[in-house]
Write a structure and sequence with these properties.
The protein has 375 residues and is of the alpha/beta class. It has two domains: 184 residues, Rossmann fold (3-Layer(aba) Sandwich), CATH 3.40.50.2000; 183 residues, Rossmann fold (3-Layer(aba) Sandwich), CATH 3.40.50.2000. It is 45% helix and 15% strand. The protein is globular and about 60 Å long.
Length: 375
């Protein structure tokens, strides 16, 4: 059975990494043949997938002006590939990929929703597109897969066809994340001039208004009042010293010596292992990949109550409010926590993720979906 995945691009992000894990793990079973179409370019992940034997096509869409040409190329490519299933990832791919697949009478069309409240983001086009997709959801997809229960509930509230919606959460490569060693974490620390004795609060995610890095800096400023020697590590695209907006926030609070800006990395598990506490600070989330990754790396994790955080973390690790005071209070509590109790908490959260969200568990759900006959 041929599965064709359509996504807007293949740079590093939660959806892109989940797609990568899905096709690589599925490929090992030899049950399905996967290929990927990027509406824009190959990106970092596309090149990596090609190196591992996955067929990747990129269509070069660069602006709204190029959409008609991209659509024509997409229809031609799908016609040549003759997929049994087209699985699309996020609004742009749901819209363009869904229309192209429907026009070619593809047997099964699966839409993918990865976000929750898109109105929190900076793009008015994305908000408008989500409303268009809501109307098209009654006629184009056979199934709509949400990464989180909160995503499902939100999209039903804006008009999506509830009868077609289901939740399949992100899956984690447990072995890869659990195999990262303390020594590898120490090596990352040494690289950025931190010692094993430093207490490091870290975060991972691209620089974006929805990810709300400004809140992380404000939390840091609040914490150093009581813990002046704390260090803060930021990993992710554009979290670098060249980012004038980010560095202006850090300088405003006189925190330059406390911060380490690592930018985009291909060794995120090692970076997570280098942290004493991982902090999520997003305004909104669907299923927060990076929280699960931090848990599997055995890093103490804190987060606001966004997306499906509650299925991953215990109540004590979740801030009562998504603001400086709320997140600071949770971190401050853990900075004073008995080590043995903290280790027990980390172990329980890890066991929960392994049991419910390992890639094997999630892969079985997708394979079942691909094989199901249409109603």
């Amino acid at each position: 059975m041929k599965i064709v995945h359509i996504i807007i691009g293949l740079n590093v992000g939660g959806a892109e990494l989940m797609l990568k894990r899905l096709v690589l793990h599925s490929q090992k079973t030899n049950q399905f043949q996967h290929s990927i179409i990027s509406l824009t370019d190959d990106g970092v992940i596309g090149s990596d997938l090609q190196d591992q034997g996955i067929e990747v096509h990129s269509l070069g869409m660069s602006s709204t002006i190029t959409v008609p040409r991209t659509m024509a190329r997409l229809r031609k490519l799908l016609k040549n590939l003759q997929p049994d299933v087209v699985q699309t990832w996020m609004y742009h791919a749901d819209f363009l990929g869904g229309l192209a697949a429907k026009s070619l009478n593809v047997d099964k069309i699966i839409w993918g929703i990865r976000t929750t409240d898109v109105s929190q983001g900076p793009s008015k086009l994305t908000v408008h597109l989500s409303k268009i997709c809501a109307k098209l959801s009654y006629s184009i997809p056979d199934v709509i897969v949400c990464a989180a229960h909160v995503s499902k509930d939100y999209h039903i509230s804006i008009g999506y066809d509830e009868s077609k919606m289901m939740v399949i959460p992100n899956g984690f490569d447990v072995e890869a994340l659990s195999s990262t060693t303390e020594e590898e974490g120490s090596k990352v620390r040494k690289e950025i001039n931190l010692s094993d004795d430093d207490t490091v609060i870290g975060t991972v995610g691209r620089f974006n208004p929805v990810k709300n890095q400004k809140l992380f800096v404000e939390v840091a400023a609040n914490l150093v009042k009581d813990f002046p020697n704390l260090k803060f590590m930021m990993v992710g695209r554009d979290n670098t010293a060249d980012n004038k907006e980010l560095t202006s926030w850090i300088k405003h609070y006189n925190l330059t010596d406390n911060f380490r800006l690592l930018g985009q990395r291909n060794d995120v598990p090692k970076c997570l292992k280098a942290m004493d506490i991982f902090c999520l600070h997003s305004k909104t989330e669907g299923f927060p990949n990076v929280v699960g990754e931090a848990i599997l790396s055995e890093t103490v994790s804190v987060a606001p109550d966004v997306g499906d955080v509650r299925v991953l973390l215990d109540d004590e690790s979740i801030a009562t409010s998504n603001d400086t005071a709320g997140i600071s209070d949770v971190i401050r509590n853990y900075l004073n926590y008995p080590k043995d109790k903290l280790e027990d908490k980390v172990s329980k959260n890890k066991e929960n993720v392994i049991t419910k969200y390992s890639m094997n568990v999630v892969l079985d759900k997708f394979h079942s979906l691909y094989s199901q006959n249409k109603n």
